[in-house]
Write a structure and sequence with these properties.
Elements (H helix, E strand, L loop, with lengths): L5 E4 L5 H12 L4 E4 L9 E5 L5 E5 L4 E3 L5 E4 L12 H19 L5 E3 L2 H7 L2 H10 L7 E4 L2 H11 L2 E4 L4 E4 L2 E3 L4 E3 L13 E5 L3 E10 L2 E8 L16 E4 L4 H14 L3 E9 L4 E7 L10 H14 L1
Parallel strand pairs: 1-2, 1-6, 6-7
Antiparallel strand pairs: 3-4, 4-5, 8-13, 9-12, 9-13, 10-11, 14-15, 14-17, 15-16, 17-18
Helix pairs in contact: 1-7
């Protein structure tokens, strides 16, 4: 009897995925790892679309019957490598590879963790905030705008503000960029705001943060204390962070699962702000977030492995 494999879609450098792959190997579950960015000599495929999808895919070390995966783990594929092509051809090849090979990988049978189209929808922060508020989470007053006058009115109504990006800074010149959450005043804003959309929120008076990782039915919650007055714990010295188990109420845990259900997700990394009275305020949910740095990373990897093994 042929054992059905788990397909892991990610780059070779993805150490978080390596933890899940190791946990799958411990369970004697075969794994095929593929980075779509290797298309060409590193990835060859031919798919006949129907029910089911049929065909094959081969990397330099593995072969996969596209009809056989028990589950697909979508992680962090590399960037398309078409830099040798002229600009127009590069854009064409990128779009065709994303919609062609990417579309095939999104169509193979089995449980998808997470479904790529559900992930894409869940990455829109305005929609996140809307759904979180509908489910009863405490959500900071939020303004999305490109109008400086609107920022001034918002500050008058809600006091100190912070600015956040929607998607972060894309890589450039071989380096990844990042803009952490930062305080901002309406007097700092001018007409240049009109160039694009911006997200402003009322600053949450927090004493710590919580990172809650939900994998299927498993919930892993940790309180994160950063030294000093950390507006964004990710911006400081990670070696100085302190982690403590954080107990969620049954009601809050249920709301987190309901949030994932609303988006068709089976996994999510939630960030919550903890206030002095012990309340939790919604920050965001990353449908493909990092968890390998947490003290329970081994148990989280096991939860992923069990979910993928069961399909």
């Amino acid at each position: 009897m042929v054992r059905r494999p788990v397909l892991v879609v990610t780059s070779l450098e993805d150490v978080t995925a390596c933890m899940v792959i190791a946990a799958l190997h411990e369970r004697d579950v075969p794994v095929v790892r593929v980075d779509p960015a290797d298309i060409g000599a590193g990835v060859r495929f031919a798919a006949r679309l129907g029910d089911p999808v049929r065909g094959g895919l081969a990397t330099e070390t593995r072969e996969l019957d596209l009809a056989t995966p028990r589950a697909v783990y979508h992680r962090r594929p590399g960037r398309w490598r078409f830099g040798h092509l002229p600009e127009q051809a590069r854009a064409f090849a990128t779009a065709e590879a994303r919609h062609g090979l990417g579309g095939v990988l999104a169509s193979v049978p089995g449980l998808h963790v997470n479904d790529v189209f559900a992930t894409s929808r869940a990455e829109y922060k305005p929609l996140q905030l809307k759904v979180a508020a509908e489910l009863g989470f405490r959500v900071p007053p939020t303004l999305v705008t490109n109008d400086p006058a609107a920022v001034r009115v918002f500050e008058e109504e809600h006091g100190p503000l912070v600015y956040k990006t929607f998607r972060g800074v894309p890589p450039g010149d071989g380096h990844a960029g990042v803009v952490w959450t930062q305080r901002v005043r309406a007097s700092d804003v001018d007409e240049r705001l009109g160039v694009t959309a911006h997200l402003f929120q009322a600053e949450v008076p927090k004493i710590a943060d919580a990172r809650v990782t939900v994998v299927g039915d498993e919930v892993f919650a940790w309180r994160i204390d950063a030294p000093g007055e950390a507006l964004d714990w990710r911006a400081g010295d990670w070696d100085a962070l302190r982690y403590r188990p954080f107990v969620l109420s049954d009601g809050l845990a249920g709301m987190l699962r309901e949030y994932l259900d609303r988006f068709g997700l089976v996994f999510g990394c939630f960030d919550l702000a903890i206030t002095e009275d012990g309340d939790c305020v919604w920050i965001e949910c990353n449908p493909n977030g990092q968890w390998g740095f947490l003290p329970e990373a081994g148990r989280i990897a096991d939860a992923f492995a069990e979910l993928l093994r069961e399909g």
